[in-house]
UniProtKB/TrEMBL annotation, chain A:
The chain crosses the membrane at residues 29-48, 60-77, 83-104, 111-132, 162-181, 212-237, 249-275, 282-300. It comes from the Bacteria. One of its GO terms (cellular component) is plasma membrane. GO terms for molecular function: branched-chain amino acid transmembrane transporter activity. Its main location: membrane. The keyword Zinc does not apply. It is a multi-pass membrane protein. It is found in: Cell membrane. This is Branched-chain amino acid ABC transporter permease. Keywords: Cell membrane, Membrane, Transmembrane, Transmembrane helix.
Automatic annotation (TrEMBL), chain B:
It comes from Paenirhodobacter populi. One of its GO terms (molecular function) is ATP binding. GO terms for biological process: L-amino acid transport. Residues 4-231 form the ABC transporter domain. This is ABC transporter ATP-binding protein. The keyword ATP-binding applies. Keywords: Amino-acid transport, ATP-binding, Nucleotide-binding, Transport. Belongs to the ABC transporter superfamily. InterPro entries: AAA+_ATPase, ABC_transporter-like_ATP-bd, ABC_transporter-like_CS, BCAA_Transport_ATP-bd_LivF, P-loop_NTPase.
């Protein structure tokens, strides 16, 4: 085991998230379900931005690929939910591989612009093909796509408990997979590329392939989140493909701490709760969020967990 | 036996030619020191061997195999390791992780050997590389290169600005590498360091090798160094 303390924390967090459903009910369960799914999105983004050092402004594209891949398969294909879920993941994986092959020919600001352009093209495509996608009105998944059977048991996604536990299961799988990836040899190479791509190349590594792997893993995990979101809440719409989604996942990661395993979860939780609370107090909540972000950026430039890692807990990464 | 041979190498930086038909050979178990003034082409030669500076003409042969056309990331996999000027460590990674990155490329199993050359690193495996002293960082850069199990080592002024104790450790390590049959091409400006460990010395100026001489001859007549590079 590479980082025992981080692994212990991972297990403790998963146990805590499992146990918390027995002490909360109603809206908080729904909110936590949503936070877990969006945290998966941010964890995917973190692979690229936090661990590999590539800032994308277009990850809404991969979230949307998962969302539409799963949603359209369930809506039009009438396939079982697990198959629809797999279709969403496959769509995101293929799209991220193709976009990665093209976008990674650029770097830094150009890379940000190219990823943004791809995402905008995807967003406009969801509007243009509104006869299929439902455009900005979106599509509500039919009743048959709101339940599935597992080991002879019918599981209804209208149940908040079922949704929470499914979201938690997917979150746990992604978290453990990312623990293994980022704390192992591949994670070292991602970090090496982030710190000094030229030196990494001089040590004998194909930097382009490492970046492509990170991009594809990142996009695929974002697609997992998108597919899960669409199926859990029974709705797919073009708003999820908007630029705002790309910015939100960037902020979740920045606030929590890029390049830390739990940064995305912390960032998503803080930002989601903040927006929920502030939007209940004022319609100008985004101004308050912006001010808070500036303060956080000034005082915690490496995010909440990034700062804690640098000052007190180097294992927290 | 010659491990690294450079034949008629022409290299340009934009329109400016930095290496002009350069020829050089380093045998296994030999330390060849390359001396020359700033801008003579020493670092450019190393970068050209590693494939990060495009060659206009000439060849680089490793143990008789032409590696001139290889992409830069494949050159180390053939057994050439480069320790650049300024160390270029992965500062946020630990000592152990830096070594692991060096080792993974060829799975050479040389980590223990590298640590035996620099025992101080063994006490700092969990420490972030960026927090090491300058001498330790240089040792780590060399150890990381050794972890790949190279047959040829290129080192660009590894002792620059270091304490005498660190210089002595690095010198001992290079002598051990020579004993293991590694061909060492060392860019070095300090005459004392050159005379202490070199087998041969090549003087470079304006992208050409001016002269090659056994280090023994320089030990007998240090004026030769002043004559060729004005150092001493």
């Amino acid at each position: 085991m590479r980082n025992l303390r981080l692994f212990a924390l991972t297990i403790a967090v998963l146990a805590g998230l499992f146990g918390v459903q027995f002490v909360i009910s109603g809206y908080p369960v729904l909110a936590l379900t949503r936070i877990l799914i969006l945290a998966v999105f941010a964890m995917g983004y973190n692979v690229l931005m936090g661990y590999t050092g590539l800032v994308s402004l277009g990850h809404a594209l991969f979230f949307a690929a998962g969302l539409y891949g799963a949603g359209l398969a369930a809506y039009y294909g009438g396939v079982a939910l697990p198959i629809a879920f797999a279709a969403g993941i496959a769509a995101a994986a293929v799209l991220s591989l193709v976009v990665g092959l093209l976008a990674l020919r650029t770097q830094t600001v150009s890379f940000m612009i190219v990823t943004l352009m791809f995402a905008q093209a995807g967003y406009l495509a969801t509007l243009h093909f509104s006869a299929i996608t439902g455009g900005d009105q979106g599509l509500s998944l039919p009743a048959h796509a709101r339940s599935f059977s597992l080991l002879g048991q019918e599981i209804a996604l209208t149940s908040a408990t079922a949704r929470y536990n499914i979201a938690l299961a997917v979150f746990a799988v992604v978290l453990l997979a990312l623990y293994a990836l980022t704390q192992g040899p591949r994670g070292r190479l991602f970090a090496a590329v982030r710190e000094n791509p030229e030196r990494t190349r001089m040590l004998g590594y194909d930097v382009g392939r490492i970046r492509l792997l990170a991009f594809t893993v990142s996009g695929t995990i974002s697609g997992v989140a998108g597919a899960l979101y669409g199926l859990m809440f029974g709705f797919i719409g073009s708003s999820f493909a908007e630029f705002r989604s790309s910015v939100e996942v960037l902020l979740f990661t920045l606030v929590g701490g890029p390049g830390t395993l739990f940064g995305p979860l912390v960032g998503t939780t803080v930002m989601t709760l903040l927006i929920d609370r502030l939007s209940g107090l004022t319609s100008a909540y985004l101004i308050a969020v912006g001010v808070l972000l500036i303060v956080l950026t000034l005082w915690f430039p490496k995010g909440i967990l990034g700062t804690i890692r640098d000052r007190w807990a180097p294992w927290l990464r | 036996m010659t491990l690294l041979r450079i034949e008629a190498l022409d290299v340009f930086h934009g329109a400016s030619q930095v290496l002009r038909g350069l020829d050089l050979a380093v045998a296994g178990g030999e330390i060849l020191c390359l001396m020359g003034r700033n801008g003579a082409g020493k670092t450019s030669l190393m970068r050209a061997i590693m494939g990060t500076l495009p060659r206009r003409a000439g060849r680089v042969l490793l143990d008789g195999t032409d590696i001139s056309a290889l992409p830069a990331h494949l050159v180390p996999r053939y057994g050439i390791a480069h320790v650049p000027q300024g160390r270029r460590l992965f500062a946020e990674l630990t000592v152990a992780e830096n070594l692991e990155i060096g080792e993974m490329v060829r799975h050479a199993g040389q980590r223990d050997f590298a640590l035996s050359l620099f025992p101080v690193l063994g006490d700092r495996l969990g420490q972030q590389a960026g927090t090491l002293s300058g001498g330790e960082q240089t040792m780590l850069a060399i150890a990381r290169a050794i972890c790949a199990g190279p047959r040829v080592m290129l080192l660009d002024e590894p002792t620059e600005g270091l304490m005498p104790s660190a210089i002595a450790t690095i010198r001992s390590a290079l002598i051990r590498l020579r004993a293991e049959g590694v061909a060492v091409l060392l860019v070095e400006q300090r005459a004392e360091a050159v005379l202490a460990m070199a087998d041969r010395v090549a003087f470079i100026a304006q992208g050409r090798i001016l002269a090659e001489t056994p280090a023994e001859a320089l030990r007998a007549d240090r004026a030769l160094i002043r004559r060729y590079v004005g150092l001493g």
